[in-house]
Structure formats: structure tokens, C-alpha cells
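Backbone-to-sequence.
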């Protein structure tokens, strides 16, 4: 007579005689498009003003004209930190100048009367 005994139970990795070598961490590699969407630019700008104001009877009341120099700063950034492929863009412009007025006040007052 033969007796067969079977025992079963869970096996755990800690119980194994040979353990696998730990895997090296995989580095995060940024996407080329994400890297290229980061930039800052500084531009020199100019604005031309050519403005005329007329009275209801058609007489020229006031004019302003001239070139105004300025500077503009633009920045953009794409990141994966908060949201995947989050794109931020902003621009600030500053223009400074004094217009040349074309109609003297005495002529404008005379046109009103």
C-alpha cells in the first residue's frame, strides 16, 4: 500500500533561494517638442500714430502723429510637471513717445464758434 501526501501553500519570493538583481531605474527623457517650446525673446518695436479728429461740419479739429519706439518681451514654456504638455505663453510690450499735434488750440477754438 502506498500513501501519497500532497501539501500545497503559497510561495513567496523571499522564500526562493536565488533572487533576481534589482532593476536600474529608468530615466525620464523629455520629448524633443516639449524641450523646443521653451523660449524667451526681446524685440525692439515701433508704432506709428496718424490720428485726425474732425468736427461735424468737416473742419479738422485735431491731429496727432509720430513714431513711438518701444520694447517687447515674449516668453513661452511647455512642461510636463502639472499637466502633460501644458503650454504657457505671455507677452509684455512697452511703448513711449510724445505725439506731434497738428492743429493749434486757437484754430480749434475758432472752428467751434
Amino acid at each position: 500500500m502506498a500513501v501519497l501526501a500532497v501539501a500545497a501553500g503559497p510561495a513567496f519570493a523571499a522564500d526562493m533561494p536565488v533572487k533576481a538583481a534589482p532593476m536600474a531605474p529608468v530615466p525620464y527623457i523629455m520629448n524633443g517638442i516639449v524641450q523646443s517650446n521653451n523660449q524667451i525673446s526681446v524685440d525692439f518695436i515701433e508704432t506709428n500714430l496718424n490720428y485726425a479728429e474732425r468736427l461735424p461740419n468737416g473742419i479738422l479739429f485735431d491731429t496727432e502723429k509720430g513714431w513711438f519706439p518701444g520694447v517687447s518681451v515674449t516668453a513661452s514654456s511647455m512642461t510636463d510637471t502639472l499637466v502633460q504638455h501644458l503650454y504657457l505663453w505671455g507677452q509684455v510690450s512697452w511703448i513711449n513717445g510724445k505725439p506731434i499735434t497738428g492743429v493749434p488750440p486757437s484754430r480749434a477754438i475758432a472752428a467751434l464758434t
